[in-house]
Amino acid sequence: LSSAAGVWGGLVQPGGSLRLSCAVSGFTADYYAIGWFRQVPGKVREGISCSSPSDGNTYYADSVKGRFTISRDNAKNTVYLQMNSLKPEDTAVYYCATDVGSYYRADYCSGFTYYRMTHWGKGTQVTVSS
Question: What are the DSSP E strand ranges found in the chain?
Fold first, then answer.
């Protein structure tokens, strides 16, 4: 399993939008959960969103709910995180990840955690500043 994250520009003004992408290789992403995490230096890694496989449930942390949206493009084997109404406190390194144990579990994201993830993409710096 392998994955990677990309971003269309890492610097955005408060109130702006940005989309992160996680291109997956080595497995069919639609069969597995994909999670998005972020981390600020000196703080714990925060799970902010999760998409369960096979059109299953989704999860959003309270800090991003209503502003961020996770989505999939199965033809491209890619998962996206659309970030709207960005705030300075959204500044962090963002990671996508998956768990081999999430295979075909439509309810996986009801209980996802950092410790369950087995494969990680490279971090992407997102800076929200005017």
Answer: 2-7, 11-12, 18-25, 34-39, 46-51, 58-60, 68-73, 78-83, 92-98, 119-120, 124-128
